Amino acid sequence: MYEVVSGGAVMRRTRVKICGITTARDAAVAVAAGVDALGVVFAPSSRQVSIEQARAVFAQVPPMVARIGVFVDADESLVAKAVEGCGLAAVQFHGVESPERCASAPVPVIKALRVGEDFDAAALEAYRGCVAAILLDTQVAERFGGTGRAFDWRQHVGVSPEWAALVLAGGLTPVNVGLAVRTLRPFAVDVSTGVEELPGHKDREKVHAFTAAVFAADQEG
To answer: What's the CA gap between 180 and 153, in Å, rounded?
Structure first.
């Protein structure tokens, strides 16, 4: 979220990242809808891509759209190869990566933390100064993302406002993302399952409806 001066007014702007992109066609759909970032998954999942496939996904993506790679407790060598081979602007760590591991990454890190009933916002403090952003996702046993389930947004209350770059994920859809933006005013929202027709295949209408809902909520704010 950042401020944009338009016609003398100051407007809050929530960034939009669509994750789990597997084809150049889906990347083009997302870019046309006005997203700020695209994510590809290098971890085992139904949306996993190789470095070569990721290059093809990003081939026609304009330079102003950030390229993000998603990993789960990956080898440093794989992360480094993906960053160099795909021109990644940042990496998203969804495993149990330590603050030290995040700090040593070759590009800025978005660290995902899973929110469940026992979520303690104090856990974020260990990552202060080690990551560029914190992503809050829904905790589901043996799943590291892409669950399609939302968590209780009230659990965000304990997160320090000093975490300006807070990314909201987990169960967001074109139907509920507007409420999420108006309620939490996150820096960014992240979606994958909520705009798919099948795992790994985005639905054009849902993608455009999602970004439109975010933009509308920003203007209401």
So the answer is: 8
CATH code of the domain covering residue 32: 3.20.20.70
Write out pLDDT tens, residues 78-133. Answer: 999 999 999 999 999 999 999 999 999 999 999 998 876 666 777 788 898 999 99
Range of the domain at 93: 15-220
- What is the tally of structural domains in the chain? 1
First to last CA, the chain: 12
The answer to whether 190 is a known catalytic residue is no
Q: Are 94 and 71 in contact (CB under 8 A)?
A: yes
Catalytic residue list contains 137: yes
Q: Pick the catalytic residue from 26, 86, 102, 137.
A: 137
